[in-house]
Amino acid sequence: MYRFLLSRQWVILTLVALLLIPTMIRLGIWQMHRYDERTARNQLVSDSLSAKPVPVERLTAPGHTVTTNERYRTVTAKGHFDTDDEVVVRRRTNADDEVGYHVLTPFVLNDGKVLLVNRGWIPADRASQTAFPKVPAPPSGELTVTGRLMPDETTEASGIKNLQGLPDRQIMLINSEQEARRLDAQVLGGYLAQTGPAPKGDTPQQLGRPGKEDAALNYAYAIQWWLFAAGVPIGWFVLARREARDQAQAAASEETEAAPAPV
């Protein structure tokens, strides 16, 4: 009754089923790895944001590469803004996906070192994409700024090309080594995404808190792939039983038609 399983069609179907099962199992395992990675990142971000603020020079220094554990740490710095060497970062969006600039202002510490401070987002000038936009001034004089420590931006990590020949005082990436050469100064590694003092009046829109990655979605995908893997042999068995039943009924019909009519 199951001799049809040796047919070419059923051999191919069986081989495909045997290949699908381990493939789906591996896809489920990969989704669980993604779930673990995203859960760990979410916990790391949460821990960093909730950690007690520390002076920025405890975590970074000129030439330092901000590590994963240092990213998003809340830090403070005392000094004053240097608006003469302020630049804007092109093609940045706000929470409403409007395209504009990030304002990057050197913050000169009391010891003379420089901390790059991303003061936030401003809209692009629709009349001109080459002229330096109108940038709200930061507070003058000595003050203490607070923000999240961020690593230098690179093309590999961000996907943003570091274009050359840009208009004056416009850049594509926030990179402390690049800015150190431009400023001819000792620039701390990474930069600060400013969160304080609170914005007043006509000031750049400060950057929002980093959102949580949806790790639960990867967990659901993993369960889904494993259910698919379990469903393959069940589906194969159901199809084989149906084929056997259909062939048995066809054979019975042929026997009935071939039987001699009663005299």
Automatic annotation (TrEMBL):
**UniProt main location, coarse:** membrane
- Annotated keywords: Cell membrane, Membrane, Transmembrane, Transmembrane helix
Location relative to the cell: Cell membrane; Membrane
Alphabetized PROSITE patterns for the sequence: SURF1
One Pfam family here: SURF1
Keyword ATP-binding in annotation: no
Under InterPro entries, the record lists: Surf1/Shy1 (IPR002994), Surf1/Surf4 (IPR045214)
> Topology relative to the membrane, per the entry?
Multi-pass membrane protein
Membrane spanning residue stretches: 219-239
Spell out the protein name for this chain: SURF1-like protein
